[in-house]
């Protein structure tokens, strides 16, 4: 334990996701030795995140304007919507360069134990998007790309139930299975089971 502001900084840094006590301590002492101009730049960046970042009116992704660059892109396929939990998931899918449609960010996953129900997520906005044609184009496919964990599976199941009554709408789920370069002996039962059930002909 350190005294005063140093310990306060370590405590606050330790509350960040993925930052343990040792990392928090290292960052705090790094900041302590940093020039004042660098600290001011960091403070300014943190302030801008809270004041300057907005969420896209259409998809809920982080944006600098009311519509994000993906929703403004006229080359995107308006009939395809990929549903993800968080803005970071959009970037993960974009890195693959495989998806050419638009996104819908839920803002989390269903987690009743933590008090996160359907009303806390952007599910109503998704249903409104599907029910309304955009630029004369109806959404024909919704790809559910929630995390492959308990909360993500519960969210996917709920969404499938909500979306199955839309006429002409195809609802798909990201395939899950074995990672490239992995060994079968190290795969957990759920992943291996999914890989078997999702097998395809060659």
Please provide a written account of the structure:
It is a single chain. The protein is of the alpha/beta class and 202 residues long. It is 43% helix and 10% strand. It contains eight helices and six strands. Strand 1 and strand 2 form a beta hairpin. Helix 1 packs across helix 2 (21-32). The chain is globular, with a radius of gyration of 21 Å. The termini are far apart. The model has no long low-confidence stretch (mean pLDDT 89).
List the helices and strands and how they pair.
Blueprint: H1 4-14, H2 21-32, H3 36-52, E1 54-55, E2 62-63, H4 69-72, E3 80-84, H5 87-96, E4 102-105, H6 123-131, E5 141-144, H7 150-163, E6 170-173, H8 189-197
Parallel strand pairs: 3-4, 3-5, 5-6
Antiparallel strand pairs: 1-2
- The count of strands amounts to 6
State the low-pLDDT regions, or none: none
Rg, Cα atoms, Å: 21 Å
Helix content: 40-55%
Question: What's this model, at a glance?
Answer:
This protein has 202 residues and is α/β, with parallel strands linked by helices. It has helices at 4-14, 21-32, 36-52, 69-72, 87-96, 123-131, 150-163, 189-197; strands spanning 54-55, 62-63, 80-84, 102-105, 141-144, 170-173.
Name some characteristics of this structure.
10% strand; 6 strands; 202 residues; two-stranded antiparallel sheet; alpha/beta
